[in-house]
Design brief:
Layout: E1 2-9, E2 15-17, H1 20-23, E3 34-39, E4 45-48, H2 50-61, H3 68-79, E5 82-85, E6 91-93, H4 96-102, E7 107-114, E8 116-120, H5 122-144
Antiparallel strand pairs: 1-7, 2-6, 3-4, 3-5, 4-8, 7-8
């Protein structure tokens, strides 16, 4: 489970240090050191471990090819998808197209959201997290039945 927020800077080559806490699931050498990335929602990039990627792919595949919204989502989801290997120093190379899509210049906010990590430009995160604050209590009531 990924939790918390961590701010990091890209190096000159566009590499991003993954926080040590987020690297714990990759400690088992038999699992490999790999994240899958794709276009996220609301202007972020999603990073997931291979097993979570398999679950997401299964969900996307369940959508109907006859539904134009499902086809368009599937096209975006898979066309933006990349394997992002983690190097020996615990870094991934953040492709230029991801940086452009998410509005990331140098600073990156890594947000742990259960089974995924979201990569945000700090200013976008500030805007989205403030908007979400207005409905947080409403959603809590729906989710927890309060």
């Amino acid at each position: 489970m990924f939790l918390g927020q961590h701010k990091h800077s890209l190096d000159a080559k566009g590499r991003l240090n993954i926080p040590k806490k987020f690297m714990e699931p990759l400690a088992d050498p038999s699992r490999g050191r790999l994240f899958f990335g794709t276009k996220g929602l609301e202007g972020c990039i999603f990073l997931v471990l291979p097993e979570a990627w398999d679950d997401l792919v299964t969900q996307v595949r369940k959508s109907s090819l006859g539904d134009d919204k499902a086809r368009n989502f599937s096209r975006q989801f898979f066309s933006w998808a990349r394997e992002l290997p983690v190097d020996a120093s615990g870094r991934i190379l953040l492709p230029p197209e991801y940086r452009k899509l998410a509005g990331i210049d140098r600073e990156v906010l890594l947000v742990g959201v259960d089974r995924r990590i979201e990569l945000w430009a700090p200013d976008r995160w500030d805007a989205v997290s403030q908007d979400g604050g207005e409905t947080y209590e409403d959603h809590a009531a729906e989710i927890f039945g309060v």
